[in-house]
Amino acid sequence: YAATGRLPAASEVDGILERARERAFRHHEGKVADYIPALANADPEVFGIAITERNGRVHQLGSYDHAFSIQSISKVFVYALVCEVIGHEAALKTIGVNATGLPFNSVMALELNGGHPLNPMVNAGAIATTSCVPGNSAAERWEFIQSGLSAFAGRPLAMDEDVYRSEALTNQRNQGIARLLNAYGYLKGDSDETVDVYTRQCSLLVDAHDLSVMGATLADGGVNPVTGKRIVGEQVARDALAVMATAGLYERSGEWLVQIGLPGKSGVAGGLLTVAPGKGAVGSYAPRLDEAGNSVRGQVAAAYLSRALGLNLFASS
Ligand code: GLN
């Protein structure tokens, strides 16, 4: 299928999706995140998966409509929205695009790089990105993000208040990262306010279907294939996919790219987004995580789908 730019017939994709779930369910390892107290309540057995094709066709099964907080997957879309405003060159210069090889909330990565964030897929770069969101107040900046991510999803997204409050009370580490960025001159605006907006963006509720539509918008060069609306420009969509490929699964990003061969982005609630540029995207939810904070079953399903659908970008046939 790789060469045709399309996925196989609908019934075939449905069967392949079923087999991806079977593979995923062979895995029981990993742990639900608990460093944000409200996330520890997640049911580890819930599994939902959806594919949205570039032509808008959808395939989904399991708890594809089960809501969870988007967490780090928001980083991709806020980055795209910010790139649209500040432009490719400024984003490259102020946020960076290189992998850290270190955990998502690493302070060391920032220190080793002279205080300059490394990329928008880990917390330091994501917080720097959020600080670039346009607006005269925190409320306006939050509105920009909420409506922008909703446009990617093609429906209004709401915040999980419990997750937001729970993280806001326990995110001293992110506050520390923001202050360091500020001290080095790489944060635009107030550090506590930026972390608050960042914490809100991580608390937005999505389901596996939403993630697949959001990802398919990037696969489609910035046009939401369901609503038909252009959300970001083509180059911005390409840039966002490139940074996902570099650093979307934190310190496991290299292993992911070699195994799956597609841009991906995980979140600690258990969401995982995999994008096949020009073709479509897979969104999944399965809350048990590996040590880097990536959904175990989501990765297994993505690996199977990449193979079965011939999506690996590095494959010659
Ligand atoms: N809100 C989380 C944090 O900043 C997101 C992290 C993640 O999903 N890896 O700690």
TrEMBL record:
UniProt EC number: 3.5.1.2
Catalytic activity reported: L-glutamine + H2O = L-glutamate + NH4(+)
Record keywords: Acetylation, Hydrolase
A biological process term (GO) from this entry: glutamate biosynthetic process
Pfam families: Glutaminase (PF04960)
Keyword Acetylation found: yes
UniProt KW Transcription keyword: no
InterPro entries: Beta-lactam/transpept-like (IPR012338), Glutaminase (IPR015868)
PANTHER family registered for this protein in UniProt: GLUTAMINASE, GLUTAMINASE 1
The protein's assembly and partners: Homotetramer.
Similarity field: Belongs to the glutaminase family.
Designated name of the protein: Glutaminase
Provenance organism: Bifidobacterium psychraerophilum
Taxon lineage: Bacteria, Bacillati, Actinomycetota, Actinomycetes, Bifidobacteriales
